């Protein structure tokens, strides 16, 4: 299962080429030392992660690897990614599974990643789809919010991010979403919890949360806006739909070819992004017989139905060929000389049995 998911995240990238940095592996690294020459970085060191997730049944503390780098300085301030790993950079690949939606400043983070990559390096992303997780009631991230966070120089999630996350999160799984079950109206965090997290944020703590709710098409639109504004140094090389029954989508971002004219590189990146976006399924719900299902799920059912029809057509064609061959054999046997009744009789008996 882990190898299959890693293959979906990595795509065509060869992790054996060059060195790799994985951001926020927690207890489930995508890339192991057996697969690539990898380094790990997180907000705090391993002991800090173990303490933070103590008692969380979803996190096995023994599976958390040692972090080579961490962002939190001894004085409590938070460094950028580029500052934290500067001495070890550059890397051929940066892997970030369920990370980009957490970063306080997406523009600054993407620039940091570009800074620590080789000139032709790639950022490999796994991103939760807000429609199939606890973000289902959240509005999609907008380019205005993303730029505001960058201009404000956010190093920790903002008041807006903390409140939107903790006030709107619900207990909702991908399995429930794909089954067409409506999400619960009741939030999963009592208001006292919301106030506590807000007070921590106001005191300067790093309150981890989903800052940017995303979908595949929403991510494509956001990247296109940022390319137009000249705020990102990446072209989107690969962007997948969320697989039916699952909760995440995948993207490969490649550093822009800066030796070329910047305007030319951006236009080419936008054209490729438009092509990728056009291949994504519609994300609006579709009403069918009184029920509402995701358009992608309907498209997947229709695709499977078309494949079944194609297989049925091939089976019928093979059956018809067999019948024609049988009829020709019978006709040939009937036209055989009369001195071979034994052969004709045996053939007719086989035909009747078949």
From TrEMBL:
Entry superkingdom: Bacteria
Species per Swiss-Prot/TrEMBL record: Nocardioides pinisoli
Gene3D superfamilies linked to this entry: Vaccinia Virus protein VP39
GO biological-process terms attached to the record: methylation
Span of the signal peptide: none
Name of the protein described by the UniProt record: Class I SAM-dependent methyltransferase
Xref: SUPFAM superfamilies: S-adenosyl-L-methionine-dependent methyltransferases (SSF53335)
Compositionally biased tracts (Low complexity): 330-345
Keywords of the record: Methyltransferase, Transferase
InterPro entries recorded: SAM-dependent_MTases_sf (IPR029063)
Matches recorded under Pfam families: Methyltransf_23
MF annotations from Gene Ontology: methyltransferase activity
Stretch list, region Disordered: 316-354
């Amino acid at each position: 299962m882990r190898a299959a998911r890693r293959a979906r995240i990595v795509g065509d990238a060869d992790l054996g080429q060059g060195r790799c940095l994985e951001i926020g592996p927690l207890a489930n690294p995508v890339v192991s030392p057996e697969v690539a020459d990898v380094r790990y970085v997180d907000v705090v060191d391993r002991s800090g992660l173990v303490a933070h997730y103590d008692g969380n049944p979803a996190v096995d503390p023994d599976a958390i690897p040692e972090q080579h780098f961490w962002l939190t300085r001894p004085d409590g301030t938070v460094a950028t990614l580029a500052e934290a790993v500067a001495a070890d950079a550059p890397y051929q690949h940066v892997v970030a599974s369920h990370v980009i939606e957490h970063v306080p400043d997406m523009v600054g983070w993407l620039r940091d990643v570009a800074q620590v990559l080789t000139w032709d390096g790639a950022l490999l992303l796994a991103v939760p789809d807000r429609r199939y997780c606890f973000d289902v009631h959240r509005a999609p991230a907008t380019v205005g919010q993303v730029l505001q966070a960058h201009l404000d120089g956010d190093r920790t999630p903002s008041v807006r991010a903390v409140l939107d996350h903790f006030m709107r999160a619900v207990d909702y799984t991908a399995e429930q979403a794909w089954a067409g079950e409506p999400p619960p109206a009741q939030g999963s965090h009592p208001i006292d919890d919301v106030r506590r997290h807000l007070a921590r944020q106001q005191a300067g703590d790093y309150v981890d949360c989903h800052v940017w709710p995303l979908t595949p098409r929403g991510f494509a639109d956001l990247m296109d806006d940022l390319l137009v504004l000249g705020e990102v140094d990446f072209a989107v090389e690969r962007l997948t739909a969320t697989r039916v029954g699952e909760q995440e989508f995948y993207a490969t971002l490649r550093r822009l070819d800066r030796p070329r004219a910047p305007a030319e590189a951006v236009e080419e990146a936008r054209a490729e992004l438009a092509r990728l976006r056009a291949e994504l399924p519609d994300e609006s719900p579709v009403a069918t017989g009184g029920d509402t299902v995701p358009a992608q799920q309907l498209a997947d059912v229709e695709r499977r139905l078309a494949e079944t029809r194609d297989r049925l057509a091939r089976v019928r064609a093979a059956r018809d060929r067999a019948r024609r061959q049988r009829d020709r054999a019978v006709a040939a046997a009937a036209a055989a000389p009369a001195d071979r009744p034994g052969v004709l009789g045996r053939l007719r008996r086989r035909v009747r049995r078949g």
